[in-house]
Design brief:
With 333 residues, the protein is an alpha+beta fold. The protein is built from nine helices and 17 strands. The strands form five sheets. The protein has a six-stranded mixed sheet, with helices on both faces. The chain has a three-stranded antiparallel sheet with strand order 7-10-11. Strands 8-9-12 form a three-stranded antiparallel sheet, with helices on one face. α6 (131-151) crosses α7.
């Protein structure tokens, strides 16, 4: 099964006409992939120009000559300036204000074009996942769970960097790539929310927080687990995190506002005497932090990841991926 690119293009074209935008210009590779099926090389610059009354075109140099085997509507340019000749006929262009660099923006303005911020309209339909997307996300989750099993019980005596490298190699052997830089933090260092693995050796008495994810055909997973035998204060904190996680999960359903869940998390943290360090979760898809709507949508995929971090003791975070349904949430991981 493949995505219905024509349906995706039609929805965006309808929005463009409604908002009086003649064409959309973006360089976000995930958006280009979402609407055309072409992902390309990470470091090569490509653009998508989508006229409201025609098929989207990919604009690239001949370095990306393989595009035509995947997507037929391509315009090759020899130099960057050729892009301006292509966009010149359009008076009102919607653009991704979060991705377009200032230099390109200034040059486009010199053409006397009307540039309309359009990022949320380009990205927001990515929130709701179709069957193909769900299959890729589930595959990424399966591989990530296998990676946890692969490293479990193998921490003591190894550095955090070594453990992270073991995970990265595991992903490569399973033909997926990292969705983000693997986080491995042990003992007191786990009190840093996003800790970069270093040369610290893991001791047998320490717990280890592992936050990892991979990509299957562009779609991400993102899971966090805490390993090690927890006793005393550590055990109590972990159990508090688990309880907060489960209460949040029970309150997720289509139509619930993000603000309401943030308030719920704050209330749960205060009740137990902790401070909130970050959001309760985030949307996941082609980006590990996909567009997040104001209210939860049916068939959107997101994480729940409450975390408690105490200096001198460590951090404890449980992160799972869930699917939002009409009256409840479904655990995917």
């Amino acid at each position: 099964m493949k995505p219905d690119f024509q349906k995706r293009q039609k929805r965006l074209a309808e929005l463009m006409k409604k908002k009086n935008v003649e064409a959309v210009l973006t360089s976000d590779k995930n958006d280009i992939y979402y609407y055309t099926g072409y992902l390309g090389f990470k470091d090569d610059a490509i653009f998508m120009l989508f006229p409201a009354d025609r098929k989207p075109k990919i604009i690239a140099t001949l370095l990306e000559s393989e595009i035509k085997t995947v997507y037929p509507h391509v315009m090759f340019i020899k130099k960057f300036e050729d892009l301006f000749k292509i966009v010149r006929p359009y008076r009102i262009i919607g653009f991704d204000e979060r991705k377009m660099n200032v230099l390109l923006y200034k040059k486009l303005k010199k053409l006397k074009l009307s540039l309309k911020p359009f990022e949320k309209f380009i990205k927001m339909q990515r929130v709701v996942k179709d069957e193909y997307e769900m299959n890729q996300i589930k595959k990424a989750i399966r591989v990530t769970k296998k990676a946890f099993k692969y490293v479990e019980g193998r921490f003591t005596g190894k550095s955090e960097i070594e453990i992270a490298e073991m995970i990265d190699m595991f992903f490569k052997k399973h033909h997926v790539e990292n969705a983000f830089e693997s986080i491995v933090s042990s003992g007191e260092q786990s009190s840093f929310v996003h800790h970069k693995p270093n040369e610290k050796i893991v001791k047998s008495c320490e717990h280890v927080l592992v936050d990892i994810g991979c990509k299957s055909n562009g779609y991400c997973s993102d899971l966090t687990r805490v390993f090690g035998r927890l006793t005393g204060k550590k055990k109590a904190v972990f159990e508090d995190v688990k309880e907060i996680h489960d209460v949040i999960f029970d309150n997720l359903a289509s139509g619930v506002s993000i603000e309401a869940i943030e308030r719920l998390q704050g209330k749960l943290f205060r009740k137990k005497g902790y401070k909130v360090c970050h959001s309760f979760g985030h949307s996941v898809g082609l980006d590990v932090h996909d567009p997040m709507p104001d209210t939860l949508k049916e068939n959107m995929v997101m994480t729940i990841e409450p975390g408690i971090y105490i200096k001198g003791i460590g951090g404890f975070r449980i992160e799972n991926m869930i699917l939002i349904k009409k009256n409840k949430a479904e655990m995917l991981s």
